[in-house]
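Researcher: I'm preparing a figure for a lab meeting and need a structural model of a single chain. I don't have an experimental structure, so a prediction will have to do for now. The sequence is pasted below. Please return the structure as C-alpha cells so I can convert it later.
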Amino acid sequence: MIEWKEHASTFARQWLWSMRARKRVNRLRFVSDELFRTEILAAARTQGQAADMSKDIHLLEAALQTDCPIASLDDRARDFFREASQTVRRLRGVVWVNPTKEAENALEWLQGGARAEAVRCLGFGVEG
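Model: Understood. Here is the structure written out cell by cell.
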C-alpha cells in the first residue's frame, strides 16, 4: 500500500475506493522472507540490477504467499526475475503478466480464470 499512497493517480485511488466499497479488496498479513530476498539479490548480475529488483521483491513474496499472479507493466523487472529464476527455484512458478501487451491477451486470460499457464511463469524455458 505504500507504493499506492506515493504513486497512485486520481483514477487509481477512485478505483481502489470503489473496490473496497464492494468488498473486493482482501487485506492480508504480509510476511517478509529475508532468506528469499537474499537469494534473489544474490542472483542479480550487477548492484544496479539488485537495487531495481529490491523495489519489487514484495510483489514476488505476495504472489508466493497468495498463489496469485503478478500483473505489472514493468517488463524490465520481469526480465530480471526471470533471469534470477535460473538459480532461485521458487521464482519459477510465479505467474507474471503485462496487461498492456496485446500479445499476452491478459483480459481474456483473466476472464478465463487466470490459470497458471507455463508460458506465463517466470521459469518458462529455464532448464534444471
